[in-house]
Design brief:
Blueprint lengths: L1 E7 L4 E5 L4 H11 L6 E4 L5 H13 L2 E6 L2 E5 L7 E2 L1 H4 L7 H10 L1 E4 L13 H9 L3 E5 L2 E5 L7 E3 L5 H11 L5 E5 L5 H12 L3 E3 L5 E5 L8 E3 L4 H13 L3 E5 L7 H9 L3 E4 L3 E5 L9 E2 L11 H8 L5 E5 L10 H6 L3 E5 L2 E5 L8 E3 L3 H13 L2 E6 L2 H6 L3 H7 L3 E8 L2 E2 L5
Parallel strand pairs: 2-15, 3-14, 6-7, 10-11, 18-19, 22-23
Antiparallel strand pairs: 1-23, 1-24, 3-5, 4-5, 7-9, 8-9, 11-13, 12-13, 15-17, 16-17, 19-21, 20-21, 24-25
Helix pairs in contact: 1-2, 1-4, 1-7, 4-6, 5-6, 8-10, 8-12, 10-12
Bound molecules: uridine-diphosphate-2(N-acetylglucosaminyl) butyric acid.
Length: 428
């Protein structure tokens, strides 16, 4: 086990290069299974979620060859299993995408329910509703989600909630189904568009991705392709937030500024100066942050995956801010950790009232989930003294080289093994 030890209070300065998008990668990799020939997928983030998915694909019979740390060649032509076991799915939220991909490939799938971050009930009823509309019989057997069909047939599916996962899963299952599938009230996140572009580059016929109505005309065959994943919107937002929180000056490069609009708008409200370039944004903060109200919503609203990070900035803002969670039932578990550091936050249901204090105090804290972990790093970086963060496996799931990237910006952050209750220092 390891933890992060941060000596905070230093403004971040310099340039950070953003990796490929986790939430695009975890959809695009299972989508490779639908092809009849090898695919090359580039700009993959080097994170444990991706490693877990690649292992699961190997176990299904895919041939996986790493070309370099961010590029992989996958030959799915020998995939002969449709079972993703509990052990394979452990810690992986995106395991559910194997349901859509395997149903789409072989009309058969048996997949352990998803693991991953825990912030309230994470149902998949809309995924199931979509598969059933396409003609699959879905059951739960021995704790595994089982789907089978003679042949999938296009259908019109209205999502009762805007769900990223259900939209992706239905796209995966429908791409080779006979006829036309229409997904209404579809999610519009950048990674949905990326998945559609990836599938279209294999020969699929998907229109409308990025809008609320996606139309998929089934094709008989998908061929291997060569594809580069979009930059990670949330990783970019996290470094932007860290620059603001530490009163820094950071160029966040290899990003798509269009994907960052809501984040840029809210960080500007806190007083940040943000200049947008073609593939970078420069974030400069010169004053104590100002209060601002934030409500998370599906894209193009403010992303729920940036809620803990911006809330962390607001703990030291001038005035009282209200943060409302509009996507998940319970995404305020990190609040307790910030409170340990002296933050003044009152949570009432899906709303947090944050009264800014001058500064937080260093303390030992936990990463209670991936983005909560990112928020703890930001809290540690903006707070003078030594903050220790445990449970960092969550952070490694989604942030590539997080220690190296923050160190290059001038942060004092170390990854420290925890051995029998004692700690041993290791070079970053
Ligand atoms: N929902 C249902 N029924 C369903 C599916 C979802 O009621 O069948 C509800 C959920 O309970 C939630 C809302 O719909 O209240 C949205 O959930 P969604 O399905 O959009 O979330 P997801 O696909 O499980 C992805 C990301 C999350 C991100 C959400 C929202 C991946 C692998 N995960 O989850 O990312 O928070 O969309 O944008 O893409 C993260 O990266 O830290 C992370 C948790």
């Amino acid at each position: 086990m390891e933890k992060f030890v941060i000596n905070g209070g230093k403004p971040l300065k310099g340039e950070v290069r953003i990796s490929g998008a986790k939430n695009a990668a975890v959809a695009i990799l299972p989508a490779v299974l639908l092809a009849d020939s090898p695919c090359i997928v580039d700009n993959l983030p080097n994170i444990s979620d991706v490693a877990t998915i690649l292992k699961a694909m190997q176990a299904l019979g895919a041939n996986v060859r790493l070309i370099n740390k961010t590029c992989v060649e996958i030959d799915p032509s020998h995939v002969n299993s449709f079972v993703v076991s509990k052990q394979m799915a452990e810690g992986m939220r995106a395991s559910s995408y194997f349901l859509g991909a395997l149903l789409g490939k072989m009309n058969r799938a048996r997949v352990a329910p998803p693991g991953g971050c825990n912030f309230g009930v994470r149902p998949i009823d809309q995924h199931i509703k979509g598969f059933e509309a396409l003609g699959a019989k879905m059951t739960i057997e021995n704790g595994m989600v089982d789907g089978r069909a003679m042949a999938l047939k296009g259908a019109s599916i209205y999502l009762d909630v805007v769900s990223v996962g259900a939209t992706i899963n239905i796209m995966l299952a429908a791409v080779k189904a006979k006829g036309l599938t229409v997904i209404e009230n579809a999610a519009r996140e950048p990674h949905i568009v990326d998945l559609a572009n990836f599938l279209n580059s294999m020969g699929a016929n998907i229109m409308g991705a990025g809008t609320g109505v996606i139309k998929i005309r089934g094709v008989d065959k998908l061929e291997g392709t060569n594809y580069s994943i979009i930059p990670d919107q949330i990783e970019a937002g996290t470094y932007m937030a860290a620059a603001v929180a530490t009163m820094g000056d950071v160029l966040v490069s290899n990003v798509t500024p269009k994907h960052l609009e809501s984040i840029i708008a809210k960080l500007r409200e806190t007083g940040a100066e943000i200049i947008e370039f073609d593939e970078a944004v420069r974030v400069t903060m010169r004053t104590r942050p100002k209060k601002c109200n934030v409500k998370t919503m599906p894209h193009p609203g403010f992303p729920t995956d940036m809620q803990p990070q911006i809330a962390t900035i607001l703990t030291i803002a001038e005035g009282t801010s209200i943060v409302t969670e509009g996507v998940w039932d319970n995404r305020f578990r990190y609040v307790e950790q910030l409170t340990i550091m002296g933050a003044d936050i009152q949570v009432d249901g899906k709303m947090a009232v944050i009264t800014g204090v001058k500064q937080l105090n260093p303390a030992p804290v936990q990463a209670v989930d991936l983005r909560a972990g990112a928020a703890m790093i930001i809290a540690g970086l903006m707070t003078e003294g030594t903050t220790e963060i445990e449970n960092i496996v969550y952070i490694d799931r989604g942030y590539e080289n997080v220690v190296e990237k923050f160190t290059a910006l001038g942060a004092d952050i170390k990854r420290v093994p925890i051995i029998d209750g004692a700690v041993e220092l290791k070079q970053a």
